Amino acid sequence: ALALVENMCPPQLWLLPWQELPTLAPSAKRDLLGERAAPPCQHWGFGEQRGWPWQGALGGTGGLWLLCEFPHQLHMTGVHADRKCFGQPFSMLGVILILTKLYDYNLGSITESSLWRSTDYGTTYEKLNDKVGLKTILSYLYVCPTNKRKIMLLTDPEVESSLLISSDEGATYQKYRLNFYIHSLLFHPKQEDWILAYSQDQKLFSSVEFGRRWLLLHEGVTPNRFYWSMMGNGREPDLVHLEARTVDGHAQYITCKMQNCSEATRSKPFPGYIDHNSLIVQGDYVFVQLTSGGRPHYYVSYRRSPFAQMKLPKYSLPKDMHVISTDENQVFAAVQEWNQNDTYNLYISDTRGVYFTLALENVKSSQGLEGNVMIDLYEVAGIKGMFLANKKIDNQVKTFITYNKGRDWSLLQAPHTDLRGNPIHCLLPYCSLHLHLKVSDNPYTSGNIASRDTAPSIIVASGNIGTELSDNDISMFVTSDAGNTWRQIFEEEHSVLYLDQGGVLVAMKHTSLPIRHLWLSFDEGRSWSKYSFTSLPLFVDGVLGEPGEETLIMTVFGHFSHRSEWQLVKVDYKSIFDRRCEEEDYRPWQLHSQGEACIMGAKRIYRKRKSEKKCMQGKYAGAMTSEPCVCTEADFDCDYGYERHSNGQCLPAFWYNPSSLSKDCSLGQSYLNSTGYRKVVSNNCTDGVRERYTAKPQQCPGKPPQGLRILTADGRLTAQQGLNVTFLVQLEEGDLQRSLIQVDFGDGIAVSYANLSSTEDGIKHIYQNVGIFRVTVLVENSLGSDSAHPFLGFPLITLEGSITFTFSVEGMNTITVQVSAGNTILQDTKTIAVYEKFQSLRLSFSPNLDDYNPDIPEWRRDISRVVKRALVEVSCHVLVAVLPGLPTSAELFILPYQDATGEKKRTAANLEQISETLIQKLNQNLVHFELKPGVRILVHAAHLTAAPLVDLTPSHSGSAMLMLLSVVFVGLAVFVIYKFKRKIPGLNIYAQMQNEKDQEMVSPVSQRESIPNVPQSELMSPEQLVDEKLEVHPIGSISTAAEPQSTKEIPTYVNG
Question: I want to staple 870 with a disulfide (CB 3.0 to 4.6 A). Which of 340, 538, 694, 929 is the partner?
């Protein structure tokens, strides 16, 4: 007998009244696995995303091999079996199809195939070779997932390219020749006759007649990157999503109708190219990846809305991402961050899939046989929001459980007694139960863990008790209350099957020796009885059980010796029960988490069969009742940019500015002002604290202009005499519609505009003379102003060595640098502070900060602000600059200050005194900050300062200091210019004096994530840069405002 693997058919359609199967393959016909790639499996997500990699799964043993299709075909070139799913239990119309193949070792190919059909659940079989062609060699068998009466067979492409179609459950076939070779098929999830076929030469075809006629849709389609539209509202069912290569080798995301995919009718929902092999369409979501500046960026479209960049925490800097689930209008993703190698972080999104918050850090990962990444995360069947995960902590792997989609995680309480009733002394958190969470790739083995939708409280898994997960001393454990308590059931690994909706558990020992016995439990694993299932010991190769309605049949298959054929043993447990369960045989059971009944905002009560009742359950009843709970703080997770601290509060992360939410709105509009919390998606709680924690609509505050950027339409800051130059004005923040814009082109001509919208098409201007023009743009409203001063024209200065400049007064100064290479100019602007007297001190940090240091400019600027806040109690007038490289260090500057009258309040002695006070506080470990929840960083005074940034000796002149500034400020440019004079003909430096009172030299980090930032460590030395290729970015991606956007930088502070 043979049972279906779970998920092959809808739960209400599973049947299996088999009797006995004849031996179809003599020992001379050894059935082996094939070499081809697996055909598609309707997005089930196994193996290579759409197919199951069976190569090598059976070894070299011959004989009869049976396999139920999933839901149309699993790739095996041994014996294949498919069976019919019907709406009525124990229907007498059950059909089983078996495809056998003969593999010739000498020829290295399939030389013969046979098709067998049974209409009495396997009691008798008819050979159908004469109906498909006596000389026809078949390769694959497909069953339509929405109409099981329709069957499709593919011929071996090495012999011919044809398909055979049956509409009567495989009784008769019609043959159709093809002009292409099918590599895989994808059936429509609702329309039974719609099919997509992917050819071996990467062409995609469609059919609306179940394969009788085909239409070419597109060429150059990426393997496994084509999808039917799967939107929940059923819109556009004939829409096809695909990833295709362009003529020049790029990848594009394309959508078109299945019967009309001409160039004129195709759509390209994502602007521009995407990374190869990155398109994913899953439910209401579409995902693509685009790498720029050496970093991958991920984009999502929800319900076919315009794409938005997926917002992870600012310094996650992902190397890899896997979309785990899009259930219940939420994206669950595993992200490998820049400092991770064998672990991933779990993130969960808002409804649109844009803003992600951390669910669990450092989840263990491993490499599969096919090179695929496997995350140690298991979603418990039947209970919404319940997951198990193996987390790596200090090189130890521990198992955690959550009942609310990752908001809260806890260790598993170990059993109180062992299998023999001896007490187990295991105290949380030092000792707990740890489980192996690998789900089997082979449907004939149960894997390390199993749960079922029809038995929501029962989980069976292998694991161990102790301080960490181990591969030694593995036992089997079961829970019948959804993970609250566990029992040890075996001291060795067993395969466990669920029969009769979990009313019967069947266990069979994992061993390389032949066995005769199995174990049964009728009380959710509390007690077990031993049964013999065969008269002769059998080498068990697999067990099949069907979790369908009323099913009490399982199949054990294996061989008596290594030279014998496959043996199948049918085990039917129906005779054990003498009646069906009635209402009084059941009891209510309430789902809970360590006594807390409100889970995901609802109280859910299920019904269970009483353990002392031995009756057949039949149809699964599901939850009896579900009652919403009053909302509490536990129903809310931290919103994007916020982190949960030990006191339970959600506070902004060090890199996040909550006011940034309102930056894109204008006065008179409104936006949702986050409270720092967001309700867990699919949580059903009502009232309570919901109003307090829900984001509130708020009127957009008037904002002064900030982040002004001036670009040219062609991205170059050069002009040709007598031709139009189009300037583009961009503003990151501010009341856009109520800002006055004044533009001085630098040649004596100036214009004004009433608001920014009037400049959407650009500001055009013609220069009549040749030269360098200082363009001044001023944007102002009633709250403030911002200006930018790009320089336009031909380079007139070439830096041959260095340039010096002496500042005459104290204050804030803006320096602009342009480097020209051909028609491209790289421009950057920095603001520096000039003081006559100040003190500096080198700072160091506790070593754990290095673990979170990606060594990029943005991070250093953000940490500088955090350190300055930690020091503000000692002195308000300080500057902090975190330096590039590891170990992490910083330079602290103690500055003079003035009162409103301009009188200086600090003398050199005052600065020295403050410096000594700071050193004393630092040496007493009184200065510290929390980088993230649970990560405390101490700030120390470094005792040795190697090559200080600033030399305070009197002999250090302003000219010499600016020479240092040139080297430090220009970064890569200065070093490379010395070595690449011929490649970079021009370097221009402009200085602008500003009378700014603000002493904060660390500017806010730009939100423009498209600008690549290269770690300072990549600069190396001038000698190491000789053989490196200079990367020059178009001026269009570089800020010309006073905000620093340098791609390679060292903090710059000078003594005037």
Answer: 929
